[in-house]
TrEMBL record:
Domain Clp1 C-terminal, residue spans: 233-339
InterPro entries: Clp1/Grc3, Clp1_C, Clp1_C_sf, CLP1_P, P-loop_NTPase
Record carries keyword Transport: no
TM spans (from-to): none
The protein's name in its UniProt record: Uncharacterized protein
The keyword ATP-binding is assigned to this record: yes
Length: 346
């Protein structure tokens, strides 16, 4: 904990220095071994920034199994300004639906979704004309890396979010790989553009079983609908299938003959939004994303309005558990890996 508090103190000094020199506030990426305390470190950094009257942006890149209200959601990548204690559900959250539990299930789609989120986050940090925007821009960014990432994926995340500090918990191999990757990076005011810092494993952290992780994911979904303090009252909404469009994202391989002239001849991966081809009965107890899109083509780039849980499938309708009253804010319901995103007895 002494090391973690020292990191929080250094980040505060860098915020003050960045404010004095009119530079961007520190942007931190937390990664490392599985069950090393990465989410706890993110919470420590965000809470201490909050005590200093900062509002850093917290980005969760796919954990989604924690009990804290500041954490993300299963199968989603999320960003939220830290404005209150962690035992409250965030009132403002930008989220994109990835549709899988782990990033390794579809790495290319995951990178695309993270890229969309990074553009929104960077735009938020660069918007400093209003007092609120200036406060957020001067507070910086804390990014919680996905579970068991590769150094190549972390390098892409660092570039997407313009990270300048990487905290690596209890992973010598990852530290060596990233240190070598950014060994020759230029310095800005005497500080490396990307600084890689090794940290020890958090005390008291224990490895969780697969059953425990499933339980935490289900608990996180329950918190989303009913609130961390069970003070929310979700709505049961009956939606006619003719009023919504069930869609899913599929991967398509483009051959060399279909590529523009001059482009590399190797196969290219594209993503296509198509109507859901499976049986509607399979979606019972599955979590779907309501996507803020006006057309099928916008689904790939649109953030989600929220999540809904299919509690019952009728002949021509879906019984949905919704966090907000009807009607639904959009007609497109994005289906992910519904086999692993089923939550019973929420």
């Amino acid at each position: 904990m002494r090391d973690y508090l020292s990191c929080a103190a250094v980040l505060e000094e860098r915020r003050q220095r960045a404010d004095d020199l009119a530079m961007p506030a520190p942007r931190v990426l937390v990664c490392g071994s599985a069950f090393a305390g990465k989410s706890s470190l993110c919470q420590v950094l965000c809470n201490y920034a909050l005590r200093r009257e900062h509002t850093p942006v917290y980005v969760d890149l796919g954990r989604g199994s924690q009990q804290n209200g500041s954490q993300g959601l299963p199968a989603c990548v999320t960003a939220v300004p830290v404005e209150h204690a962690a035992d409250e559900e965030p009132s403002r959250r930008m989220a994109y639906f990835f549709g899988h539990i782990d990033w390794i299930d579809n790495p290319r789609l995951y990178e695309r979704v993270v890229s969309h989120l990074s553009k929104v986050v960077l735009a938020k940090l660069n918007h400093n004309t209003s007092p609120e925007g200036a406060r957020t821009a001067s507070s910086g960014l804390v990014v919680n890396a996905p579970s068991q990432p590769t150094s190549e994926l972390l390098g892409k995340i660092i570039d997407m979010f313009e990270i300048d500090i990487v905290f690596i918990l209890d992973n010598e191999g990852l530290h060596a790989s990233l240190s070598q990757m950014y060994a020759g990076c230029p310095k800005v005011n005497g500080v490396p553009k990307v600084e890689v810092v090794p940290l020890p494993k958090a005390g008291g952290v224990v490895q969780a079983s697969a059953k425990r992780l499933r339980y935490l994911r289900a608990l996180r979904v329950r918190d989303y609908f009913y609130g961390v303090m069970r003070d929310f009252h979700p709505y049961s909404v009956l939606v006619d299938l003719s009023d919504v469009q069930l869609v899913q994202i599929e991967t398509a391989m483009l051959s060399a003959s279909m590529l523009p002239i001059g482009q590399e001849s190797k196969q290219s991966v594209e993503f296509i939004v198509r109507p859901f081809a499976g049986s509607v009965q399979q979606l019972e107890n599955a979590m779907l994303a309501v996507v803020r899109a006006n057309s099928m083509n916008e689904v790939l780039f649109a953030p989600m309005c929220g999540l809904v849980l299919v509690t019952k499938v009728e002949q021509h309708a879906l019984q949905l558990l919704c966090p907000a009253p009807p009607p639904l804010p959009a007609q497109y319901l994005l289906v992910g890996d519904f086999k692993n995103l089923k939550f019973i007895d929420i």
